[in-house]
Amino acid sequence: MSLARVQHISISLDGFATGEGLSHEAPFGHAGERLHAWVFATRWGRGLQGKAGGSGGVDDAFVRMFAPGIGAEIMGAGKFGYPGWHEGPEWKGWWGPNPPFHTPVFVLTHRPRPSIEMEGGTTFHFLDASPAAALAAAREAAGGLDVRIGGGPSTARDFLAAGLVDHMHVVVVPILLGRGVRLWDGLEGLEQDYDVESVSTPSGVTHVTFTRTGSAG
Amino acid sequence: MSLARVQHISISLDGFATGEGLSHEAPFGHAGERLHAWVFATRWGRGLQGKAGGSGGVDDAFVRMFAPGIGAEIMGAGKFGYPGWHEGPEWKGWWGPNPPFHTPVFVLTHRPRPSIEMEGGTTFHFLDASPAAALAAAREAAGGLDVRIGGGPSTARDFLAAGLVDHMHVVVVPILLGRGVRLWDGLEGLEQDYDVESVSTPSGVTHVTFTRTGSAG
């Protein structure tokens, strides 16, 4: 069965998954790289940057779940580009010529454009669709594999609120951002549909996983 | 040196330390007892209720730090009573004839009343004062011991914002309350003044401690 999975969305202790003041120069606004420093301290994260070394513990094990079993990603417009990218016909996303997805990626936007094929197997498709319709399209493209709900926080929240997420991995980083976009707004009682586990690691973060009750069977 | 300590404030994963709809019948509003179930699963918590049994692990170790070394508590009006307790001259707090504090307790309120001496060493004093002035009064009463900043969340936040807290122990409970009173509002960058540790336990909660940088020396 093809699952919808949210993989490592990092939030501050006060619940913000991105900061304030997003721009071309500041993809996470005033949060900078603080929410994701734990990723780039792992062997997997350093490998992404072409570097050796890094931790091989629990943080590394979690980030290595990013790709296996995933056949497509859905992301919000804000994960594809800076506010205003719609105005730039040449913009091909934050992710360089060979994006780290290596699958079809469905970008939710009210201003769709033609698909863009990148190196390494990533193709960006642009959809103006509801969460359920986008998930159906991504499932079709995923060929029986899982679909990653890639964020940002507003997109993840929309899929959670629609009851479409089977598995979620949230990482709580012990900083207080004070402002930005919250992951949890409007999700009262979400935990009742999931088995929830928490594990803190020596890097200081806490991994919280949500597994839809019964979906492990 | 006398420290100001926040001891086990429990918050939901979305940051609420109390629910919505506080009343005489519902001290934590719609949160009910869910934020504190972990306390009453420990040996210490069960002992408070005159029961045997309970867990003896990390959760128990943390709750046992409640009383040792504390010479006075400061609490907000909402921790002393339901909305409207000011109207009831006979109200002596949520805590029964022998409250679990066993020290002087300073209740911050804009409508002070005469002190109330309870059984077991607890005396409630009522103060209309700034956080700094209240802490000075509590320190005086604590006779060189530490002062517990007892909450609720608005009171803890006021003391944190004023830079008066030396040590804080927050417990993140993996539920989403959706509404209520947030602990973290307006505390951007708080972590920069503290060494922060996180540890998750088998009960599912995560203990987060803030120790003022340099105060361990």
From TrEMBL, chains A, B:
Annotated Pfam families: RibD_C
UniProt domain Bacterial bifunctional deaminase-reductase C-terminal: residue ranges: 11-188
Domain of life: Bacteria
InterPro entries: DHFR-like_dom_sf (IPR024072), RibDG_C (IPR002734), Riboflavin_Biosynth_HTPR (IPR050765)
Protein name per the record: Dihydrofolate reductase family protein
